[in-house]
Each structure stands twice: as structure tokens, then as C-alpha cells.
Design a protein that fits this description.
297 residues
Length: 297
């Protein structure tokens, strides 16, 4: 892996993990679905405008249109919509931990549902990751975590898992930034309808709200998604997904530093186990090195 891909992967992990902390500032002062719909509208329009200025076309392939629609619905509308709603009652660190289990769920779905083979290292990683989740969830549930908020986070990561399965079709065929912008506009349209039905317009304007909204719109929203698609195009979905093993640590670390969220011993142990499990699963997916050919003497 070259240095540019390594920088892209680490940058993506940091930006993705920071979104949970910035979301806490937004939902404290604004209706979550309305704020998210507006965020995606701005991000999508900016992304499409930049893509057009770069000469990219919105005449996508059929596979790209399907993947863009699924990604916009599952990641932007469902995953992030559910997480923004949950963030009113759940710690940002816990939400990031739940979301970071997505690579484990993708591997589990491939093994149990799609019949994909999983190497012994992958099975061990899957078991370790799920054990780490159980450690953290047991600690948080006994500590009185909000059950509804936790359920929303779980539903969101299931939607994210489905979105991840569509990313290969979205990143093939060029026009990467155009795809990013269009899938955000899909999410914005869906969330706008949901917000109009379920939320009153009530905003407490403040400097933290404005700064968090701008940051979330431009950095985790637009830049991180673009970095992910570029990374997948450079090194493939399997190798790119390896960087997800950083998300549990980064998510809880950023929340602890910025928001002052409590980080207990069982949280640290559980995060370490989840990180090891995610890394093992991703390494097990990597193709085995081919044996050197023997030449005739």
C-alpha cells in the first residue's frame, strides 16, 4: 500500500469517527432529521457543482445509479438519520462503537447468508469482535443506557451494512465525486419528507451549533465520503475496509476529549477486542500471496 492510500485511509477513519461527536452539538439545539436533510442538501449541491466543474457527468451507469440510490437511502437516510435521532439520548462514543461493527456484520452476512468462505482467522476475528461488543453493551446496559437510543443505533448499523455492500458498484465507472453528491441528494430528499412529517421546526441558534453543522457538512459529510470512494478505487473494498478497525478507538477517544464522555475499563477492553476482531476479519479476506513458481533446472 502506497503512502497516499495510507494517508487517505487514516484520514477517512479520523473524519468518519469525528462525526458522532459533532452530531451531539447539532442535535442539542436543532431537530435531528431536519438538520441532517439540510446538511445533505448543501453537501450534495456542493459535490455536484465541483464534479461538474471537474468535467464529471451525471450520466452514470445503471450499476452506479442503483448503488447511488441504495447508498443514499441506507447510509444517509437510514443509518445517519437513525443515529442523529439516537444521539439525543446516547453517548457519541457508544454510537461510534456500534457503527464500527459494520465490517463484522458484513463478514457475518457473507458467511451466514451468502455462503462465502471465511478463513479460521476470520472466524476468530468475528468471534472476538462480537465478544467485544457484548462486553461493552453489558457494561452500558447495566449502567442504564437508553434502550430506545441503543436500538436506533443498532438499526442504523444494519442499514450501513447494506449500504457498504453497494459501494463497489458506486465507485466503479468514474465520476466518483458526482456519485458522492447525488447519493447525498437522495438522502436529503428522503430525510426532508420524514422531517416534515415528524418534527417541528425549533432551533436554538448558537455558535457551537453553526460550527458543528459546517464541520459535519463539509468534513465527515463530503470529504470523508469522497476519500472513501477514492480509497476503494485505489486499493479495493477489502483492503480499504481494513481502516475501519481504527474507528472504535478514534470514536471513543474524540468523544472523550471533546465532550468529556466517561470511558470505563470495560469500554477500553471492549474497544481493544473489537479492533482486533475487525482487523482479523479484514486480514482474512485479503487474498493469500501466490507461491513462487519453480523454474526448471
Amino acid at each position: 500500500m502506497d503512502l497516499r492510500s495510507l494517508a487517505l485511509g487514516i484520514g477517512f477513519a479520523v473524519m468518519w469517527s469525528s462525526a458522532f461527536t459533532s452530531a451531539k452539538f447539532i442535535v442539542a439545539d436543532a431537530p435531528p432529521l431536519t438538520a441532517l436533510a439540510l446538511r445533505f442538501l448543501i453537501s450534495g449541491l456542493v459535490g455536484v457543482a465541483i464534479a461538474r466543474a471537474m468535467g464529471q457527468s451525471w450520466r452514470l451507469t445503471g450499476a452506479q445509479w442503483r448503488a447511488t440510490a441504495v447508498f443514499g437511502l441506507c447510509q444517509n437516510a437510514l443509518y445517519l438519520g437513525l443515529n442523529f435521532m439516537a444521539m439525543r439520548s446516547v453517548d457519541a462514543g457508544l454510537a461510534s462503537i456500534v457503527a464500527s461493527t459494520m465490517p463484522l456484520l458484513v463478514a457475518l452476512a457473507g458467511w451466514a447468508v451468502l455462503g462465502q468462505r471465511l478463513r479460521p482467522l476470520g472466524v476468530a476475528g468475528l468471534a472476538a469482535g462480537l465478544t467485544g461488543v457484548a462486553v461493552i453493551m453489558g457494561s452500558r446496559i447495566s449502567g442504564g443506557v437508553d434502550g430506545t437510543g441503543l436500538a436506533l443505533c443498532v438499526a442504523g448499523v444494519l442499514a450501513l451494512t447494506l449500504a457498504t455492500l453497494s459501494v463497489r458498484g458506486a465507485s466503479s465507472g468514474g465520476n466518483v465525486l458526482m456519485v458522492v453528491g447525488l447519493q447525498m441528494l437522495v438522502g436529503s430528499a428522503i430525510l426532508a419528507v420524514a422531517a416534515a412529517i415528524s418534527e417541528p421546526w425549533q432551533v436554538e441558534w448558537s455558535a457551537p451549533l453553526v460550527l458543528a453543522f459546517l464541520y459535519t457538512t463539509l468534513v465527515p459529510g463530503l470529504l470523508a465520503t469522497f476519500a472513501w470512494f477514492v480509497l476503494v478505487g485505489r486499493i479495493g473494498a477489502v483492503r480499504a475496509a481494513t481502516f475501519h478497525f481504527l474507528n472504535p478507538f478514534l470514536g471513543v477517544a474524540i468523544a472523550a476529549i471533546v465532550l468529556g464522555e466517561r470511558l470505563g475499563l470495560l469500554d477500553v477492553v471492549g474497544v481493544a477486542i473489537i479492533m482486533a476482531g475487525i482487523l482479523a476479519v479484514q486480514l482474512a479476506k485479503a487474498p493469500a500471496p501466490s507461491a513462487p513458481r519453480r523454474t526448471a533446472a
